[in-house]
Amino acid sequence: MSTTLPLFWHLSSAKKKERLDASVKLVVALEHFQSQFVPKDSPETSEDEDEDGDQPKSDGLKHLNAQDVAYSIRRLIRGLASPRESSRIGFAVALTELLSRIDTVTCSQIVLLVLDSSKTQGSMTGQEERDVFFARLFGLTSVIQSSLLLRETTLPSSSTAASDLESYTEVITELLALGEKKSWLRESAWWSIGLAADALAASAVSWKDEAVDATISAIYSETKAWTPEKVALTLKLQAAYPSREWKKLLAPTFKNPDLLSTGNLSTLARILKESDADEDQETDVPKSGSWKPQLHFVWDVLLDQLLSKDGSARASKGTFPEFFRIVVDESLFASTSSPERKYWGFQVFQRALPRVTADDMPMLFTKNFMRSWINHLSNSDRYLHKAARQVVADIQNAVKGDPRIGFSLILQLTGGNGSRQFDKLTKTKTVESILTSMDEEGIQSYIDFLLEQVDDAPSSETADIQALNTRRAWVIEQLASLIRNGAIPKSDAWIQTILDWLAVHGLFIVSKKSEKSAILALRSIPAPAFSEELRKNCRDRLLACLAELTVQTTLVKDESKTAKVAGVASDGRLWVSRLLSTIQQLEKDSKHVHSLSEVDEEEAELRQKAHQILARLKDAPEDQREAAKGIELLLSSTLLHQYCVDEDDADTDALESCIDGASRMFPAEAKKSKKSRKSMGEDKGKEKELPAPIDVLADTVIGFLEKGTAYMRAVANQVFSLLSGAVQESTIDLILTQLERRDPEELMADEDEDVDMDDDEEQEDGEGEDDESSSSSEGNEDDDEEEEGDEEADLELRRKIEEALRVNGISAATGDSDDESEEDLMDDDQMLAIDEQLAAAFRARASEKGHRKGKFSGFMVRCVHAHTSPKDTDAQREATHFKNRVLDLIDIFVKKQSTSPLIIRLILPLVELTVATGPDEKQLADKATGILRSRIGKSKDIPTSVPKDDAAKALEELHTLARKASTPEVLATLNQCSIYLSRVLLHHDASDAVLKAYRESLTDFVSRKASRLNPPFVGDFVKRYPQAAWSIRDDFVEAPGAALNGFRQAQAFHFINTLVNQLQALGDRKSEILEFMPNLRQAILDTLSNACTGESSLTPAHAKEILKLALTSVRQTKRFTATVEEAASIWEPSKWSDLSATLAASDRFKSAVGLQAMCKQIVQLLQESDTAGTKASSKDKAATKRKSEAVAADEEEESTAAPAKRAKHKKARKEKSG
After folding, report:
1. How far apart are CA 820 and CA 132, in angstroms?
2. CA pair distance 528, 735, nearest whole angstrom
């Protein structure tokens, strides 16, 4: 028994794994003992029974069981009443497994032991009584689960059966009695009875019929009241024994013998809600003392029979929809139900969800359930909000497991019992998450459903048109959201369907159906027709969808490779181009559709030119294919925008600019006639005056950035990314001009000059026409009308100014006014009051004049609006946003064209933006800093060819700004830019400019008191480019002599130390190195000597770092010299001995004995022979050197300590010695 006793302790462990391991070990050991046991022939009193007085002598365990087995059975049964944590579970598992493994015990023996060990006594406390009740429940359940209750075998060498009818009846009776004693035990006790009933139905014992009769009699004759437990057991018994007289047994509570028939559902609902079914009769059945959050096991029995997946459930007169509607929806989710009952209802839904198929899904989303679910889901303060959220999680998991049910779920959430705005109403993303889990087939089914909602005509003539428009608006929003959500699996087919549908209903009117049309929207005519508001909504959503598709990337498979491309379908065509093809097809199909807006001849001609250029771009050469793609996107997007915008907002200037730039960038090939050859020279002269084609396109892109729509901004960024390879110097200047700060008055003056020049040109053109044609009178009339228009505009401007002055109490000056009259001076408040009104008047006049400008008038207007008045916060904010978008273009260019020489031109304007912006434009400064540091400063690529003069000027300007940097952050940015430009110039053999800039900065750092430079600005250059830094080594040596103070002297020597440590990387420069060392020696000696005499503010710590440089330099010198004498001639040991004496005599350094030791170490290095000794002696010398350096360092630290601290240490040592 010594091998099994330790295992009982672990049966009570709180860890499940430990309990199971202990159970396995215990059962295996007991099986081993039992296999070696030889049964006794006659009963004898064992020592075990003598020791255990609680066990009756008639249990008979000792006759057929080993001593350890008998002891273990008794102890396991007694342990069921233990109050220790988890002991009851562990002992019950071990007992069940043991009883199932041995065949030497009878059911009556074990039941007797369980009942004897779980007797209640009057002296027991409430806790002790509960433990005894649980012991009896667990013991009887172990007998049932171990199959001992219905075992057909007999005991070994005996005719005694392992189980009999008497034992079975006793178990059932005890469990029923236990359930009636305590209400909180009833569900568990009846669950165990259900296990016994299932085992009885599956067994083949000889007394099975008697057992069934006994069970039915105990349940229905002795227990009259109906409870959920009795319903569960009835369902099991009806399924197992359908031929019994169930009508008699269920009467009078249920009228139909089939418990799940429709007529019984109302009564069943009251029972399952745990309200009394026999309301007119009093019952003594104990009621539940408190509500339990766990769902009753009867629901699993019900759902197994109603929604059996294997189809084995019996045929019932009732159906699940009726059951769920009456028993769950109208009972648990009734408006009068308590939150506790609704919580049960949510759990029933969660249990039923994985059991139903996609076709049966609507059965679960009933009216009351949806109402309760939405109410509790929409507000986090609701009592069942967490339960409602759990239902959402279960629905999402169900769709992930089976995407085919996603479409059915969405129909229920957005259907009659739900809400089309389900996600918005519940403040969740339930519908959206379901869509992301669906497959392409499900998405297509959902789209078909949405389109059916649009074409579904009202049921009567008096139908609510407003409701229909609301439903159509929701459909439009849902279609757009499918494209907008990047997590939804995309398919070219359904994306094209959505785009075509939005284009048809946004731009055309369907006059006749076309059943065979490839465009799905033409197969039906919506009745009634779409309102103008809905059509505008379609156009807006169409542009929004294209904005999303423009930035989304798609895997495009080519013949040789697969690449991710933005804004295209899987076949490589732009989505915008595909949509334009659909629009062209619809324009030609006048039989079925006609356009909403009429197009004049001029606009039609522009569109035709645009389509011609688009066709021409398909034949672009390979090296210009990317630029052609960008122009195609720009031209197609601009053309589509012309289709979608309102007539009042239509602006053909952008389209004209695109056509102009594209036609000149990709000119058409035409045969040259004599006339054309004559005019060729004139055309070339005109082209020289015109801006470059890429500039025209870039100006259009910049104009897109000013628009407030996401579509225009997305197109602008993508187009510029494709055109970045064709960008020229003038293009960069055009972009950088947008970032400049300009005075509004200057802009207005410049604009007026441009307008005057345009007027002069118009007059000259008019004179030329007078000489060539006879229609001069008409031209004069036009000029007169324009002049009259200008006069009227001037009068209108004057009227507005006079009105603004009059409102603020100031009269306008007239010819009759007295010039000498006293003026009423305005105070500051009055001046501010009229400022906004006058500014608005001037802006209005400026915008009127701006319409008559040339190609680049858009930029001027943008600048005017961006910098009109510092008081106009909205305008200032909009200007900041615009500049942010322009910075996006620069970021794109630097990322795409990292080897372009034009990057050099970007550095200074970005630096100026970083340095000069105010606190209200901090976002701009941060973004510019990010481009400089992340994109340019960390770039591994170098421009292939750079203008050296421009790069040199930029580097010089950077160093000038760095010397006056306002913050360390700005200086760090300038340092990174300086390193980048230095790398570029050094790569292109332009080191003179780099050396000049760093030479001047070094001088500024060491000699100017107000210098803002820091050591890393020069030190980083020395670390990264020692070859270049070596060229200004003399400047580094001379710098300490001109240093302003000891700190800057020490930093100058630190630069030299960095350079000396990298001498090996310089290559074969022996002569230069040996020539440099005497100068360095003299600089060190002079600096330390001056510090000793008080001419310098050098501290002992600084002096230590300088002497470390001297030691390093001596060692480096010895590497490049053949003999010690040669090194000694360079460093002159005698002078270092003199320096040691000078340091010892100095008041400032005499306590720093470590400095003297370092001087002696230098002398020792110069006296050692390189060739003497072996490797071992060299190692000893190296160890000696390291030790001496460490001693010197320690002495230095001690010597530099404060006098007060030294005094304290001396005092402490005296006290210790005393």
Report:
1. 116
2. 50
Q: Which two tokens stand for residue 180?
A: 């009636």
198 Cβ partners below 8 Å, 6+ apart? 236
Strands 553-557 and 562-566 turn out to be: antiparallel
Please give the Cα distance from 481 to 7 (Å, whole number): 62
How far is C-alpha 704 from the chain's CA centre? 28
Torsion angles phi and psi, residue 154, rounded to 5: -110, 165
What is the rounded distance in angstroms from the CA atom of residue 1018 to the CA atom of residue 1043?
Answer: 15
pLDDT tens digits, residue range 391-400?
999 999 999 9
Its pTM stands at 0.72
Closest CA to 698 of 616, 631, 625: 631
Radius of gyration of the chain (CA): 48
Long-range contacts of 341-346 (CB under 8 A, 24+ apart): 341/273, 342/372, 342/376, 342/384, 343/293, 343/384, 343/387, 344/295, 345/369, 345/372, 346/373, 346/384, 346/387, 346/388, 346/390, 346/391
Tens of pLDDT, residues 397-440: 999 988 888 888 998 998 888 888 898 889 999 999 999 999 88
Tell me the residue type at 612. Answer: Q
Burial of 681 (0-12, 13-18, 19+ CB in 10 A): exposed
Q: Report d(CA 209, CA 207) in Å as an integer.
A: 6
Element (H, E) at 319: none
Residues 841-852 pLDDT 10s: 665 555 454 443
Torsion angle, CA of 369/374/376/377, rounded to 10 degrees? 130
HEC sequence for 345-362: HHHHHHHHHHHCCCCCHH
**Cα 128 from chain centre:** 56
pLDDT in tens, 761-789: 444 444 444 444 444 444 444 444 444 44
Give the span between the Cα atoms of 327 and 267, in whole angstroms: 9
Q: Cα–Cα distance between 852 and 759 in angstroms, integer?
A: 9
Q: Which residues contact 896 (CB under 8 A, 6 or more apart)?
A: 721, 724, 725
Closest CA to 1095 of 1026, 1030, 1040, 1028: 1040
Calpha distance 349→342 (Å, rounded): 10
Average pLDDT over the chain, rounded to an integer:
81
Rounded-to-integer distance, Cα 1009 and Cα 1047, Å = 12
Q: Are β-strands 508-510 and 593-595 bridged in parallel, bridged antiparallel, or unpaired?
A: antiparallel
Query: Rounded to 5 degrees, what angle do the CA atoms 600, 602, 605 make?
Result: 105
Rounded distance, CA 873 to CA 875, Å? 5
**Which token pair is 594?**
């006609």
Give CA 3 to chain center in angstroms: 58
Q: What is the DSSP string of 523-552?
A: G---SSPPPHHHHHHHHHHHHHHHHHHHH-
As a whole number of angstroms, the distance between CA 1155 and CA 1143 comes to 8
How would DSSP label each residue in 82-110? --STTHHHHHHHHHHHHHHH--S--HHHH
Span 374-383, mean pLDDT?
91
Residue 668 CB-density burial (10 A; 0-12 exposed, 13-18 middle, 19+ buried): exposed
Report the pLDDT averaged over residues 138-152: 92
320 neighbors 306 (Cβ within 8 angstroms): yes
